[in-house]
Specification:
Helices cover 19% and strands 37% of the residues. It has two helices and nine strands; from the N terminus they run E-H-E-E-E-E-H-E-E-E-E.
Length: 118
């Protein structure tokens, strides 16, 4: 058997169009729409796949998503400007500083600025 690879991270959302626009603005790239209710956004080696959800499928779940950034304040401002429902204040963590963002579909994720080692 050949080696398995991680496929796209699939995020279900009831606010599909708003969520696609949010991640396009947050990540600075355009989504590729395969069909109505499904879009993919390339994030380097990982693809974020957004799928229109029925009621009860959206929001926080077993998927934990975070985006690494060199400047958590600037990333938080970008999230606010992109239409985040909420953005927390930066919090110090053992691994660095992070903010929690809630996207238009109600999904929460983190923006993380790693602590410099040394």
């Amino acid at each position: 058997m050949s080696m398995m690879r991680l496929g796209p991270l699939l995020l279900f959302t009831t606010a599909f169009d708003e969520t696609v626009r949010f991640y396009e603005r947050l990540l600075g790239v355009s989504a590729q729409r395969a069909h109505d209710g499904y879009a993919e956004i390339s994030c380097g080696p990982v693809t974020l796949a957004l799928h229109r959800a029925g009621s009860g499928e959206a929001g926080a779940g077993p998927l934990h998503l975070h985006f690494a950034t060199d400047d958590v304040e600037a990333a938080a401002a970008t999230a606010r400007d992109a239409g985040a429902l909420s953005v927390s204040e930066p919090q110090a963590q053992p691994w660095g500083r992070e903010v929690t963002v809630v996207d238009p579909g109600g999904f929460a994720f983190e923006l993380v600025e790693a602590r410099e080692s040394g």
